[in-house]
Amino acid sequence: MAKIKNKNELCRSELKNFKAIQAISGYSLFDRYNELEHIVSRKIDEEYRHFLAKPVKTGESVSWYSASWIETPRILTELDSSTRAKYEQIVNKTLSHYHSAVSALKAGGADDQSAADYLEKALKFVDGNFVYCYDNKTVLGVWGMKLRDDVREDSRVLDLSGVPIIITFNQGQGGIISAKSILYKQKDDTLTVDDIPSIEVKEGFIFTGWDTNPVNFKVVRNTEFTAQYNIIAADPPKEPVEKIAASPPTLPQPLPLTPPEEPEPPIPTPPPLPPKIEEKVEEKEEEKIEEKVEKKPKKSWWKRLLYWLLLLLLLGLIFLVIYCCLFDRCNWGICDCSRVSSRSNCNCNCNCNCNDNNNDIEHQGIKPCDTTTASGGEEGYMGSFEMGQQGGTFLFEYNTYTIPDRITIYDGGDASGNVIFRYEGGTEVVVREVVTFNESIITVVVVGLGASTGWNFVINCPDSSSQLNNSENQYISYDYHHFKHINSISSWQR
What we know:
The protein is of the alpha+beta class. Among the domains are: 7-155, no CATH class; 165-231, Immunoglobulin-like (Sandwich); 363-477, GOLD domain (Jelly Rolls, Sandwich), CATH 2.60.120.680. The chain has 5 helices and 28 strands. Strands 19-21-26-23-24 form a 5-stranded mixed sheet, with no helix packed on it. Strands 20-27-22-25-28 form a 5-stranded mixed sheet, with no helix packed on it. The two termini are 91 Å apart.
């Protein structure tokens, strides 16, 4: 925005909203304003030289500047009736002076006639919507062109350049405004309850509100609100009260004498019943009581028995679920998880396929059966064994000593196959078991469950399982989905 000495921007307009833009020698009056300003300074009295605002053209918009003001500029058509009449007289007086100057210039020479042409075209369209009033003077904010008919009224001026909008509250005849009656707001501000002044209502009136509700009112232009009242109707005159002569007091009438009421004769009581009749009545009452007691239904014994059996069954199921979640009972067909440890990733889903957390154990490759493997740490072991045939049984020998370990055997060349054997604990002795397999390769995973652990195992080839009958060692015949103890081993517990 340009700055002009001793002048402030009054408003701003877009050329696309106007038509009939006046020009001289092919140039608009805005482009040749310096010549017009020179004519005004020579031919117009100083009192009226401010009437035509100074235009500054920027692209397709024009900013209009006027002398600095004390009062806030207000548009002529938005003034109240009394103020508007005052400024309309000033406008008419100013225009009369300009027209007189034009007439005088037309009677002069060629230069004067050219000056008259400038002034006449500048004043060709005078619209009250563009006349600004302040400090007892008027300024034509937009001149030398005409607003298009299809342009909305609120689009005639795009920007008032920060000039505050005046909101006036009129107290009316029925009250007195005790606070400020004039507010200064910016465009698009919204009035709140705190902005509305309070009113001291005069006697004989009732305040009913404002002619337009000011609460949440969006400020667009200068606006006035006027208080509304109802007149309280005067009370009708009171009729004079006639004096009534006092009448003598009336004495109470004597009560009639009545004879005293005679007392009612006592009701005779019936004579007592003979003893035999009383006994019969008592016997009948006892028989009725016994009949009522007999009619009450008795709970049958089988319902009570069924109730206790269902209660015991429920308690047994609760105990079984708790026990199943704490210990490995996959082979009972109840639950499939070993006791959860930090190295397991088991979910109890009753299919005995709990997967160990084997991601951190390196696979040691494929070895032939009859190979012994041992470890002295908790890093565990993972390796595969070539069984030499497709499916069958083999003898598995292992010892986990006193510190518990977990040994899992999978069908196939990795730990993603079906589990065919699982043990977790400390055996303290060598245990020999027969395991059934289906693939030509099996995979063994050992997870150490404690520090300083030790374990070893032997995967015997399938033909060595026939030597079990001649072995002196104790053994267990093992199938992952069903097993039984042939000889108990006291040191091996699941």
